[in-house]
Write a structure and sequence with these properties.
The chain has about 110 residues and is mostly helical. The protein has one domain. The chain contains 5 helices and 3 strands. The protein has a 3-stranded mixed β-sheet, sandwiched between helices. Strand 2 and strand 3 form a beta hairpin. The longest helix is centred in the middle third of the chain and has 17 residues. The N and C termini lie far apart (about 30 Å). Bound molecules: zinc ion. Zinc ion (ZN) binds next to helix 2 and helix 4.
Length: about 110
């Protein structure tokens, strides 16, 4: 369950966060998925990626997720965050969330 909201200005702000170095298309804070452009609603891979984050955030409850995410971000950089690794590795598999075991991101924690 997630609400999808098109919010280009929020995504521009996130994109300018130090170290991001890319145009962010989607940003998820449970229960909302923010997109920079309404055409991304049709991007099943992107939506699947963000829904994986919804699941991770539900498991960890939101506050520890945000804390853990930013700790990992500053320690290891965006692409090595365990939540991102799970989401990127499985975003092409549109059935992933149907089969995903709880706390599956744990496998990516180093
Ligand atoms: Zn992500």
């Amino acid at each position: 369950m997630a609400w999808i909201i098109v919010a280009p200005r929020l995504l521009n702000l996130v994109s300018r966060f130090p170290g991001v170095n890319m145009q962010v298309r989607g940003y998820t804070i449970f229960p909302f998925i923010f997109l920079s452009n309404s055409t991304y609603k049709e991007d099943q891979v992107l939506i699947n990626h963000e829904r994986i984050h919804i699941r991770q955030q539900m498991e960890l409850l939101l506050i520890p997720f945000v804390f853990w995410y930013f700790m990992a971000y500053f320690r290891r950089g965006y692409r090595l965050i365990s939540f991102e690794q799970e989401a990127y590795e499985n975003e092409q598999n549109l059935d992933y969330l149907k089969r995903r075991k709880p706390f599956a991101f744990w496998k990516y924690v180093k």
